[in-house]
Structure formats: C-alpha cells, structure tokens
Amino acid sequence: MIKLNREELKDKIYACWLGKNIGGTLGTPFEGKRQVNDVKGFNSDPGNPLPNDDLDLQLIWLKAITENGPQKLNERILGEYWLELISPFWNEYGICKGNMQRGLIPPISGQYENEWKHSNGAWIRTEVWACLNPGLVDEAIRYGYMDACVDHGMGEGTYATIFVAALESAAFVIDDIRELINIGLSKIPDTCRFYKFITAAVKAYDDGKTWLEAREIVTKMSLDDPELGWFQAPANVAYAVIGLLYGEGDFKKTVITAVNCGDDTDCTGATVGAILGIMNGTKIIPDDWKEYIGDGLVTIAINLGGCYPRPPKTCTDLTDRIIALHPTMLYNKNVAVVDGETSVPEEDKARFKGRAFADMLAAHSPYSFNMDFVISNVWIDYDRAPDVAPNSEIGVKVMLRNKFRSQKHFALRFILPDGWSVEGKKNLQVKPNDVRATVSEYVIRTGDTVDAKNRVILEISCDGREDVALIPMVFLG
Q: pTM here?
C-alpha cells in the first residue's frame, strides 16, 4: 500500500492550485497568440489572479462529486452539471451542451458534429481528479475520461485528458518528469495523434535540440494536420511537455518556457505550474510569485446564481474541501493518508503503467455510451453517427454484463416510433459476474417518416427481478 504523509499531501495539493493559478495568470494575456512569445514575468496587476475557466470547471466537478459521491458519479451526471452551472457556450463547451439538449447522451454529446473535439477544454481541468486520487492513476484517468468525453467524445482532447490525469496522479509519488511522461503515454493508444506529438517533443529534447527547435517541430506537425484545428490538444500538451523538460525543475523557467511556445498559453502555463506543485510542494514556488498572486480564486465560467453552497474562493479553501473528501475517495483503495512517513513500494509504482483502459476504449465505437443499473452494466454502440433518413437503417450493438453471481435471463424490448422496426435477439442468457459482456447486434430500420428528433427506448428486464433498465437512444432526422 502507498502511504502518504498527511501534511506533505496537503502541501502538494495546495501547491497544485497555487501553481495552477500562477501559471494561468501569467499566460492569460497571451492566450490565442500563435507566435513565439518573449514573456519574462507577469503582465497583470499584483494581488489579482486572473479568471480562468481551467480552474472554474473543476470547482463545479468538486461540487458534483461532493453531492453525488465517487461511486455514483458518471458522465451523464457531469453533463447535467454542465447544463445547470457552466455558463459559456464557446467552442466544444457550447457544442456538447447543444447536443445534450437534443437528447444525445455523453460521450456522443462530445463526438457528434464536434469540430472542437480535438481541442483543449478537458485536459486543462484534470487536477481535481488527480488531487482526489493521489497515487491512484487508474482512478484518476477513469474520472478524467468521464469528464472529457462529455465535450470531446473520443477525440484527441479525451486522450490528452487521460495522459495529463495519469501524469498528475502519479506525480504525488514520483518526481521524475520522464517517468511521469512514460506513465501518461502508457494509458493512451500509441496510434492516436496525441501520442505522436508528445513523443516528438520528447525526441527533440533527447536529440539535444533547443526548446525553440522542439517547439517548431511540434508546430509544423500541427500545421500539417489541419483537421486538428486551432487550440488543439496534441500541440498544446506537447508545448507543456517542452516546458517541463526544458525547464529542468525550475518553476519560473518551466512556466515561462511553456507560455513562450504560444497558442493556448493560459492552459499550458497553468498545467505545468500545477504539475510542479504536485511533484514538489510549495517549496518549489518562488516567494515573489506567491506574493504577486496571493491565495484568491477568481471565477469567470460559473453560473453562480444556481451554485449553492458557493464554490471555494481561495486555494486554501479548495485544498481543504478536497482533503475532506479523501476518507470517502480513498476508502478501500491502495492509498492511505498517514501521520508517519510517506512510503511507496516499487511494485505499486510499477502498476501505474498499463493499457487496460485504452484497450477498453478502443473496443467501442466512437458513437457509444455506457449505462449502469442494479444488476447489469450495458454498453450501447452505434455503427455510425446517429443520423437517420426515411427507410434507412442503423446498426446497434448491445454489450450486457451481469453484475451478480447467478446466471440470468434478460429480455430485451425496443420501444420504437410508429413505422420503425428492429431485427435481432430478444432474449439473452448472461453468465454470472463475468467481466466479459454478452454481445448482441441489432438493426433498427426507420419508416417512411422520421422526425427531427426520434427517440427509441431499449427496455431490459430480468426474470425474477424487479429492476428494469430503460435506455434512451436518440436519432436525428
């Protein structure tokens, strides 16, 4: 078991938020400028941290997990908090909310007609998951995924989130940047574009190139792949990695290098500041920068009118609220908070790496979603985007897992719009408590008429059990 000293852990969590606030404030004045910058320090008034949605959204996620608990929380609940409490409608934020309002369930809400799914909106808000799951890498990436998929689907922005969440969670017990990067890379497919950008930045460093040469390699890769768009995750996380590598453990040098790479500078500066804070605690943050920023948090993207109790207003309060959740978050896990010394067995560190989560995601369609019920867990995969026309068809794969120890007989019934039909098995025998799902494939055929929004309900019932799973599927005409 990993044992984390209570005071050291608190100091690292506080340093995470302080570093996030410092880096975001330093980078914000240059956000969106894609040229190389020549930043040497702050360009804002002392004592006034600048507002940053990178931090704002995490305050709402903290509220969500406090109100719902760690086991119940899922992407659909986070989606409801998006609709209720996140005010901006820009880029992927607006697309995901619009898609959810049309009835598309996360992660389809982040995948469908979303030209911003490769963007930066999710990997910039991973610290809350890492701080709630210090040294629990697989837990941090699980929460990071359920967060990112709401507005990024299965885009590069989601892979970026998994990478950063893994790196930050591991940073509570590992202080080697290269090893942390390797842990992050182990959690994502080596075929995704994000993976190639990060490894290119690392190779440039290993080849002895300057930070500016490394930045130009990444920038050219970005320009050569226009589908990734502006404010894209692969290049910007690579800029953050350049800051971490070439900063060589110096807080100011790391943040300034990341920001000087340009583009989404509030995000890159904030993230490297948070990572160094997690790794080293407050001792790494220069006193003059601590004093310049102070302890306050300023919000910009939260609907405060609907948010009660109010979110934290200081890094201190935010730290205290996270620590208050640790008894629940860490219960029956492989991490304990203790008054004695921190100790991390090597076999626990070795378990930080692994492709199980990436392989699980790769097994599903980009247009898929998961729902959990009392006795079953169900994945729904569409064979394409959920667009339909009159007299057309769409394939639906149902992957059903029995959560208990007795074999069960499930009956499946599709409740369809008038004139629609479905072909496939109506009864499934499912083995007990099997990690492998029972898979059944269906073809849904539309009728002569389709509406703008067409709802199909899959009803799954089980002999001898009162639990009935109702799964909504929306198809857009």
A: 0.96
